[in-house]
Structures are given as C-alpha cells and as structure tokens.
Design a protein that fits this description.
globular, alpha/beta, Protein-Tyrosine Phosphatase, Chain A, 5-stranded mixed β-sheet
C-alpha cells in the first residue's frame, strides 16, 4: 500500500490509493490511477508540472462552496476536468457563514444539526444525510480512473477518507489495510504541517476544535462507520448502501476492471 505522501508542493496529504493487496490474494490495486489529497489551493508551477507528470486528467473537489470560494483549487494551465462535487451539498460550509439562529432554523427545516462540528457528528451527518453525494463521488472516480484522477477535500481525511475507504471496499481490499490507509493521515498532518492546515481550515470558515478536526483520523471511528453500514446492509454493506443512494450499478465492476491487477508472484517471492 502507498502510505507515503507524494511530495507535491503546497499539499500535505497527497497519496496514491493503489498498492494494496485484495482479500482474494491474487490481485492488487494498481498504482498511478487514483490519488487522494488535501486542498489544492496552494499549488505552485512545480506542483502543477508534477500533477501533469502523474497523468492526472480529472480533479474532483469534494469541498463545499464556502471552502472553495475562499481557497479555490490552483489548477490554472493544467487543462484538467475540474469537477465540483461537494459531499455536504454546500450545507455544512455555505457561501455565507450562518449565525447560530440561522443554524437552528436550518436544523429544524432539514433535520440536520450543523452546529456540532465534532468528528463523530461530521461522519454521522455524512453517512446519514449525504449518501447520494458519496455515491456520485464513487461514480465519478469509476468513470475517470481509466487515466488518472485525484479527489480531495480540505485535509484529505474525512470526506476524502470515506470516499477512499468505499472505493477500496468495492475493490475488496481488507479491513486492516483500509483502516491503516485512513489513520496514516494523522502522521502526514502533524508536526510542521499542523499550523498550516489549521490556518487553511480557519480561512475556509471551518470552526470548532480545529486541531482535532484538521488532523485526527482515529481508525476506530472509521471502523465504527463501516460496522454500522454492514450491520444495516449486510456483508456487502457498502456496495448496498451506495446502490441504495444512486450509485450506477456498473461502477463496482468498472472500478475492479480498471484498477485491479494480478499479483506478480515472482516479485512476491523475491520480496
């Protein structure tokens, strides 16, 4: 699995989701096809050249309009297909920051309490209210990974982490590898990166416990989310959940066809 971050100037958590063996044992997830990242607002000429060298032709921005407008992706000159697909459907970080009273009225109208920005609440909202957006994100990756695609949010761990985990599950990657891939974000966003990522969150209007919201990726939280989906939908819970929320029926097979490669037994033995 490619747990190491790729050194792209202006990013902290840019990674390839490939490299993991599948549970079947005879296939592995191809590298150089699907990337996950934090925000791309600080890209430089060098980093844009690096993205071009990676062959990326599609960038999927999972952030809300309030985040995108303050820190737009710096993709000038790349000529990529830039898709804005806000997982929270522009509700969590709207164009204008809501007052407490406006949040209360929105909660009464939609059944979503947007005032609680704790990690567990963010995930509950994502899974409980925005399944259609998650399904759309998986569809876009399935349609784009014939070449190379990167999807990202602000820190590259929550919205991006859930989409990555769902894709890996559809590719039959094991639970241990999925949780490891999710949790490694905490290391990439710690130390010298923390101050910058917290500032970026604040600039994008993300409030609350910024240090935790910005950097924490506890594997037990992701495990709880996956367990709850499997508890409701059965062994193939994530696929059933995504299908119920509108994922194209052909997307899982499209992902497997384009992203699974046979294990090189000779290299495995030598390794």
């Amino acid at each position: 699995m490619s747990l190491d971050r790729i050194d792209i100037e202006g990013t902290f958590n840019f990674r390839d989701i490939g490299g993991s063996p599948t549970s079947a044992g005879d296939t592995t997830v191809a590298t150089g096809k699907v990337y996950r990242a934090d925000g791309l607002a600080q890209l430089t000429d060098k980093s844009r050249a690096d993205l071009r060298a990676l062959g990326i032709t599609t960038v999927v921005d999972l952030r809300d309009v309030g985040e995108r407008s303050k820190l737009p992706d710096a993709l000038d000159g790349l000529g990529v297909n830039h898709i804005e697909l806000p997982i929270f459907d522009d509700h969590f970080f709207p164009a204008k920051q809501l007052s407490r009273e406006e949040m209360k009225k929105a909660a009464e109208a939609t059944g979503m309490d947007l005032s609680d920005r704790s990690l567990s609440k963010i995930y509950d909202l994502m899974i409980g209210h925005f399944g259609t957006r998650l399904a759309m994100a998986v569809d876009v990756v399935a349609q784009s990974c014939g070449v190379a695609v990167v999807f990202h949010c602000s820190a590259g761990k929550d919205r991006t982490g859930v989409v990555a985990a769902f894709i890996q599950i559809l590719l039959v990657v094991g639970r241990h590898e999925i949780l490891e891939d999710y949790a490694i974000t905490s290391q990439h966003l710690s130390g010298g990166f923390l101050e910058n990522i917290v500032r970026n969150f604040a600039d994008a209007g993300i409030s609350g416990n910024l240090a935790e919201t910005a950097t924490a990726a506890p594997p037990e939280l992701m495990a709880k989310i996956l367990d709850s989906i499997e508890g409701k939908y059965g062994e193939n819970g994530v696929e059933a959940y995504l299908l119920e929320h509108g994922m194209a029926p052909e997307s899982p097979e499209k992902l497997r066809r384009q992203l699974l490669a046979p294990v090189n037994r000779e290299e495995s033995v030598q390794g």
